Amino acid sequence: MSASNIPVERADFDKVIVPTFAPAAFIPVRGLGSRVWDQGGRELVDLTSGIAVNALGHAHPALIEALTEQAGKLWHISNIFTNEPALRLATKLVAATFAERVFFANSGAEANEAAFKLARRYAHNLYGPEKYEIISALNSFHGRTLFTVTIGGQAKYSDGFGPKIQGITHVPYNDLAALKAVISDKTCAVVLEPIQGEGGVLPAERAYLEGARELCDANNALLIFDEVQCGMGRSGSLFAYMDYGVTPDILTSAKGLGGGFPIGAMLTTEAAAKQFSVGVHGTTFGGNPLACAVAERVLDIVNTPEILQGVKARHERFKSHLNTLNERYGIFTQIRGAGLLIGCVLADAWKGRAKDFFDAAEKEALMILQAGPDVLRFTPSLTIDEADIDEGMMRFERAVARVVNG
């Protein structure tokens, strides 16, 4: 028996993996589009797309082609050299956005780490060492490094790791007065998710982002948008900032950018980028040819009217199903979000029980997500078939009935 054929089961996770996760009871082994099959051959409808990562679903033929073609050429070369896929992808990201420069990393956390370091370096170089404070929103999520969990506004992720990085202030989301009260000439950056993802699928109000832009300009601070979850077509535009008409100085992307292959990117202006001179920041794997070849293909497909308009149409189909279900069961107080980032806020009677709905969905061969204990989250493939939406919602209704009927 070859090493790759050693039989494994879910119980092995609890024996050999560091227990930072508690995965579901089944092991997916194959995916196609928005369907997934487990070890026993059971077919599930996937309304998670790997937490907004598999933007084009599972095993998309164009992505398989891009990966296998590049795999036969060049896997890794390091940043002592450059490579064609990275240059092509960066050129297309610059052409499609406000950005003039791109830094490639391997994840959203790394993209955000680069963004926060750049903001501090920019302020240090232009205004002096006292301008280092960063303002973030409560209930935000920006990654799991020490810097990013400190900036993320959820103490449960940042407590217990020793002294925290100083100069971080958290204010309520969508509260412009609160932001105005704390921003100062010591602020180097304001960091916001245009749609809070992990914090409960909560969209920003237009006036809030417009006000944040004005406050940053008045205080010589950079505006950073974390679009790791809400970007790459998920809102119905290529990036959510385009929906609001508010342009940041730095934008971070990951998740859907690689369509399932790990990659992150920090997009920024020429003025900010030049404060990152040679050797100031770096990465071994960032700009990897394999990742960039796949991401370039993802971008080519997603950044088209067909896909982006389709996301908005699919949003309406989901919302129609969810509203009909809610009329019957009354379990949600709000259905919110944009495009195919949808959050359903549980009513008081069901507060804290998102996990129960998650578990019931799995029993109905359906994959969904939570965004905290009080919100159910749907982040399906941007190209999910209408039939899969309908089937998924039928299974979800059966899951809801399971919970409601005890």
Automatic annotation (TrEMBL):
InterPro entries xref list: Ac/SucOrn_transaminase_bac (IPR017652), AcOrn/SuccOrn_fam (IPR004636), Aminotrans_3 (IPR005814), Aminotrans_3_PPA_site (IPR049704), Class-III_PLP-dep_AT (IPR050103), PyrdxlP-dep_Trfase (IPR015424), PyrdxlP-dep_Trfase_major (IPR015421), PyrdxlP-dep_Trfase_small (IPR015422)
GO biological process: one example: L-arginine biosynthetic process
UniProt key word Cytoplasm: yes
Cofactor note: Binds 1 pyridoxal phosphate per subunit.
An example molecular function term from Gene Ontology annotations: N2-acetyl-L-ornithine:2-oxoglutarate 5-aminotransferase activity
Pathway: Amino-acid biosynthesis; L-arginine biosynthesis; N(2)-acetyl-L-ornithine from L-glutamate: step 4/4
Catalyzed chemical reaction(s): N(2)-acetyl-L-ornithine + 2-oxoglutarate = N-acetyl-L-glutamate 5-semialdehyde + L-glutamate
Main location: cytoplasm
HAMAP family: ArgD_aminotrans_3 (MF_01107)
This protein's name: Acetylornithine aminotransferase
Organism of this sequence: Azomonas macrocytogenes
Primary gene name: argD
